[in-house]
Specification:
Blueprint: E1 7-11, E2 17-22, E3 27-31, E4 35-38, E5 42-48, H1 59-71, E6 77-83, E7 89-94, E8 99-105, E9 112-115, E10 120-124, E11 128-133, H2 137-142, E12 148-153, E13 157-163, E14 166-171, E15 176-180, E16 184-188, E17 192-197, H3 201-206, E18 212-217, E19 220-225, H4 229-239, H5 254-261
Antiparallel strand pairs: 1-2, 2-7, 3-6, 3-10, 4-7, 5-6, 8-13, 9-12, 9-16, 10-13, 11-12, 14-19, 15-18, 16-19, 17-18
């Protein structure tokens, strides 16, 4: 195997974190800002690129790896955590918002998983984090979150995060599943992915849904989330009362609620 073999344990229910156990000299790679806590004896280092260690030792190889990450909206840098001590050490990474952490052994999925661009959390050293361009023109222009997706390649453990409740569906050959573009978390590389327009102008304009949805055709496995972060953020923003200055009029104040009740402006 090319990847480091790591053990792990997932804690929590709706606000989960993953605790990774590292043997001496083992390394885990994570997104910048994902760290929750780590034990003494773990060395932390910021690296430039995709963290796989396979992009070449030259500056051009590192620039290519970093450029791929930049296209997905992620940071140019990743962070490695290496056990430099004599015994087993633990490092933990937390979810950025309510949801679930999905552990995936890439060796069980033919060495490749395609996921949403902000789903990756952490992985064993050696896993390559790149980009997956959708081949069809319609997917690129109208796919929304699905235009540029991440691809995780290797043969080790990787951890991705998704919002709300997660369901794993295994599609039979020729079986089709239509999904809101934001609700698609990940899929195996053999799933055929495309974007379709919602039929019926009334449905698109007045149905409360988007104009497009993802069409997934088996065989393969897909992971679906019930609460995309974009949906959560838009509902919170829409529900927050705004003042001319941009803030909430009754933030942190019971008197503010009474002021509104009495018709104050």
């Amino acid at each position: 195997m090319n990847n480091h073999e790591i053990d792990y344990k997932i804690h929590g229910d709706d606000m989960q974190f993953v605790e990774v156990e590292l043997d001496p000299k083992e390394t885990v790679v994570a997104e910048a800002g994902a760290l929750m806590m780590m034990e003494d004896g773990i060395e932390m280092e910021t690296i430039f690129g995709d963290g796989s260690g396979t992009s070449g030792g030259g500056i051009m190889g590192k620039l290519m790896g970093a450029g791929k990450r930049m296209l997905t909206g992620e940071s140019l840098f990743m962070t490695t955590f290496t056990n430099t001590g004599a015994g087993k050490k633990h490092v933990s990474f937390a979810s950025p918002y309510p949801g679930k952490i999905i552990p995936m052994d890439l060796s069980e999925h033919n060495g490749k998983i395609i996921c949403q661009k902000d789903a990756f959390l952490a992985a064993a050293k050696g896993v390559s984090v790149g980009i997956e361009f959708q081949r069809k023109l319609g997917t690129g222009f109208f796919g929304g979150e699905g235009f540029i997706m991440q691809k995780l390649e290797g043969d080790g453990m990787t951890f991705i995060h998704a919002g709300g409740t997660i369901i794993e569906k295994r599609l039979r050959p020729g079986e089709i599943l239509r999904v809101d573009t934001g609700c698609l978390v990940a899929m195996t590389h053999n799933v055929n992915y495309n974007i379709e327009m919602v039929k019926g102008v009334k449905t698109a304009l007045f149905g409360g849904e988007g104009l497009f949805f993802a069409t997934l055709k088996g065989p393969g496995t897909v992971w679906i989330q019930s609460l995309p972060f974009s949906r959560l953020a838009s509902r919170v923003f829409a529900a927050a009362p705004q003042t001319p200055g941009g803030g909430s009029r009754d933030e942190g104040s019971i008197a503010g609620g009474l002021f509104n009740l009495l018709g104050g402006k």
